[in-house]
């Protein structure tokens, strides 16, 4: 590979050499990066998750997760995509056809190609993110270094895990609350809301009573509050939820950047959490304004690229705002990636948690990983392993998957 291509690749990764700046200073690894390693295998494993998830916009009766394996010589990178929902006959080979583009590319070429595909809008984030996660995983394994160290992320304190409740029915929501308690995930809880004041208030009151006064309870309305004439009216709805026991609200309504700032002023101590305006990361870097909220969400499956996602996270924190690492209903190898990103950047909490109450496939097949949820409900790194640290029992994974295909 030509020197200028090598320099471009190292810049993409975030390693500082003279004239190149992104996220970290690791000159000792520059000469050791095997950027010419070829991508020589891609396999896909389908895991159908049949636990319903209720949103203000729709209900997912089932969803199709793809565990993505990319291979370069002896090194394997793992990732995950929530590829579809409500389709138990989903064709993973057809979905994964875009991955054939990577055949024969080097790791560096694959990263640059994927970034270009997303930024040019030819691939969406559900395609670009798993490819990049797997390739960055391989890169760390090649140089025997944790990827978050290659990215220059130096925080290591455990981060609270956020348990998510997506039930419209009060009794079902309370049943999920009991699961949260059994998993020691009670410091931070999220409840899905529906833009219906009666339902949302009832959920808030019931869950506050169940968890007690010390739990941070936030909600996500997915922009479900639509019937408001002005920001004062919307602010009143938010303040009523706050009085009932809710601490924060993610995406209450469709708002402009200016409206976010005005609404946050009007609701006072009630924390707003912009999510939709932060998508994708490279655009959010220009849109972000600290007046918009108290916390800001970096949401999996929507960032598209990770150089910019890290820059966005650092920008949020440098403006003295809280950082939420969200979720995309993930159940597999992507969870530990987002957990390590959350820890490395010093997030306020992380929502992307393994969900054994919905699927145990990952837990039954994973042989090694870097993160665990401790007895205090915080995600911690038990041992920093090369890449993102995931190793899988592929024989068992193939037997437990609903479908399998090797693309090349």
Structure description:
- There is one protein chain.
- The protein is of the alpha/beta class and 408 residues long.
- It is 37% helix and 20% strand.
- It is built from 15 helices and 19 strands.
- It has helices at residues 3-13, 27-30, 92-95, 107-119, 125-142, 147-150, 170-182, 197-211, 231-244, 257-267, 281-287, 306-318, 334-345, 361-365, 394-400; strands at residues 41-49, 53-54, 59-60, 63-72, 75-85, 159-160, 162-165, 188-192, 216-220, 248-250, 271-273, 295-298, 322-325, 349-350, 366-368, 371-373, 378-381, 391-392, 403-406.
- Strands 7-8-9-10-11 form a five-stranded parallel sheet, covered by helices on one side.
- α9 (231-244) links the parallel β9 and β10.
- The radius of gyration is 21 Å and the shape is globular.
- The protein starts with a helix and ends with a strand.
Low-confidence stretches: 1-32
Major β-sheet profile:
5 strands, parallel
> How do the strands of the widest beta sheet line up side by side?
7-8-9-10-11
Task: Report the end-to-end length measured between terminal Cα atoms.
Answer: 24 Å
Helix count?
Answer: 15
What class do helices, strands and sheet pairing give? alpha/beta
Rounded radius of gyration (Å): 21 Å
Helix content: 25-40%
Shape, principal axes of CA atoms: globular
* Average pLDDT metric: 92
DSSP strand (E) fraction?
A: 15-25%
Q: Total number of β-strand segments?
A: 19
Q: What oligomeric state do the depicted chains represent?
A: single chain
